Amino acid sequence: MWGRFASTRFPASLQRWANRAFARVVGVDLTESEHPPEAYPSLSAFFVRKLKPGLRSWPVPEGVPGSPVDGVLGAHGTFQDGHVLQAKGLEYALPDLLQEREHGRFESGVFFTIYLSPRHYHRIHAPAGGRLREARAVPGRLLPVNLPAVRSVPDLFPRNERLVALLERGGVELALVAVGAYNVGSVSAAFDPGWGGGSGGTVTNRAGRTTIDVRRYDPPLSIERGEELMAFHLGSTVVMVVSSPWSSLPPIHPGLREGAELRLGSPLFDGPLA
């Protein structure tokens, strides 16, 4: 119901008021929006607005991964045995989140959980260049992913609707997971527009879907750092996983702290990947 309301095109004067009211209530920084609120024909279109060109920068050298989104950094750090921290006292299994059944992949490495509130920019970009081999649209629940839920609901992210993109860069496996939530089940795939029917159609939260929709790319898609990959049609959470033995990965950037605001392109590591 919320999705239908957000996609409805109201008369221009009412739509202008609705877009500006939404921006004011949630705290959107309109100075960063590519267009003024009245230029967007629906609340959903305003929600997936682009940024003005040149507002975000990426680390030097090119191999240093940057944040894939604007958002608030949650749990992050190293992991082993395929289990990742959700919140203090709660872990979940990466194979369940990724629906990854190939033994030995994503056993150890580094992870970042980034929460996108309604005020944030909601397009998701590649944190590093690489080859996109596979993507999975995984059906699930739409439980809230706010801080109280993250701290209390076991296996929250693996339960929810999500879109998983799997990339490889020089032997390092990288997974980017767009996790849906309450009122936020729809995610589009910019790397494969036809998957959603073109024109920003979504690949998740489809009525009647009960099985995982898998796309494999042979040859793999060549992805540049900073390239748009996905978009939330309302906001939620992104989980980024870099899988490789710790000794082969650069240190996590020393300036990262739980609860800190991240901007698209903010350095996540203190050095380049392989």
State mean pLDDT (0 to 100 scale): 90
The major sheet is characterized as: 8 strands, antiparallel
- What separation lies between the terminal Cα atoms? 45 Å
Q: Classify the secondary structure makeup into a structural class.
A: alpha+beta
Strand order of the biggest β-sheet: 10-6-7-8-12-4-1-13
Alpha carbon gyration radius: 18 Å
Number of domains: 2
Give the count of helical stretches: 6
Low-confidence residue ranges: none
Q: What sort of overall outline do the alpha carbons produce when their principal axes are compared?
A: globular
TL;DR of this structure?
The mean pLDDT is 90. The protein has helices at residues 2-7, 12-26, 43-47, 94-98, 147-152, 156-159; strands spanning 71-79, 83-87, 90-93, 109-115, 123-125, 130-138, 162-169, 172-179, 187-189, 213-223, 228-232, 237-243, 261-262.
Describe this entry's structure for a reader.
The protein is α+β, with helices and mostly antiparallel strands and 274 residues long. It has two domains: 1-55, no CATH class; 58-262, no CATH class. It is 15% helix and 30% strand. The chain is built from six helices and 13 strands. The protein has helices at 2-7, 12-26, 43-47, 94-98, 147-152, 156-159; strands at 71-79, 83-87, 90-93, 109-115, 123-125, 130-138, 162-169, 172-179, 187-189, 213-223, 228-232, 237-243, 261-262. The strands form three sheets. It has an eight-stranded antiparallel sheet with strand order 10-6-7-8-12-4-1-13, with no helix packed on it. The protein has a three-stranded antiparallel sheet with strand order 5-11-9, with no helix packed on it. A hairpin with a 2-residue loop joins strand 7 and strand 8. The longest helix has 15 residues, at 12-26.
